[in-house]
DNA sequence: ACCTGAACACCGTTCAAGT
DNA sequence: ACCTGAACACCGTTCAAGT
């Protein structure tokens, strides 16, 4: 007499995603997720291999979310406007959901190995603007430079590394403007 | 009959530093550190408040190390040469000791709250070159932009986020050149 | 004044037994 | 075919008892 599944990977990942948002990576425990889903911890192992696997799935979800966010920010402006809008959208996300942002952009000991395909997902819209901004030949380098800067800035901002004061909104603008100017292909 | 201390904070932090290097943040356990130091885990609590405290001290050590490293890289070249040399020195460190680098530049759930003074320590040599490069008025913004980019690039490189291939050495050069050009004060 | 063993709470994970 | 309780290993941390 087979027992019908009382949950599913989808529901487990969704629960994990929401636990992560409000308890952080450290609070993302199998026990908490199980109780959120209405099941006992051992049952989760019928649907995911282990905690690392669950974390990987949750991070992949966040990557998809990030891609949507960035794609939506790139409107019909020129390349520089779109790049600026995407940078601001990413900062908004980092502020709105710091745990999700950190899970994606800092290699917590927990996240262990993240599928590199996950990054490719989120990187698509960035590559597209980078190509328009820097030209096809430098699209990859330009995309990496901008992404590295934004990820680094926001990670450090969230970590409280920018303690020397000054207006961080302005500092972020300063950075994005400097990068756009530097990467822009000769007209 | 008071018992003479069989260890010290210094020795504990040094042990923690070396355990971190070869086992990562996740392998940095009180048990491992205790055994490295020749003592039982409960004894550590006579010298550090708890694991978070130990992690904080280890990270502060890494920050000092990083400052030395950066200061040594800034030779007698002009501002652009020094900035380049410092960026390369940081990358060398990230490759040589990835766990130490990650402990400093990614807010592991473990690191919890890092003293912001720790960042100030490591930032000093960067601020100094930034002032020479971008002028005193923009020193802080320029230092933040360069640091954010380098931290982001190296974190992503270590995480395997740059899977799309291409020469990463060249990509790093591309980034630092672009940033130097963008931040350089009008001559 | 520091060290220790014993103990506790909490975690991930396995597994035999239920349905 | 999935769920469960019981169990195990491992972790951080506390504390009374040793010296």
From TrEMBL, chains A, B:
Top-rank taxon, per record: Bacteria
Pfam families, alphabetized: TetR_C_33, TetR_N
Domain HTH tetR-type as annotated: residue spans: 6-66
PROSITE patterns in UniProt: HTH_TETR_2 (PS50977)
DNA-binding region as annotated in the record: 29-48
Positions of transmembrane segments: none
InterPro entries in the cross-refs: Homeodomain-like_sf, HTH-type_TetR-like_transc_reg, HTH_TetR, MT1864/Rv1816-like_C, Tet_transcr_reg_TetR-rel_C_sf
UniProt KW keywords: DNA-binding, Transcription, Transcription regulation
Single GO MF annotation: DNA-binding transcription factor activity
Protein name: WHG domain-containing protein
Organism: Demequina lignilytica
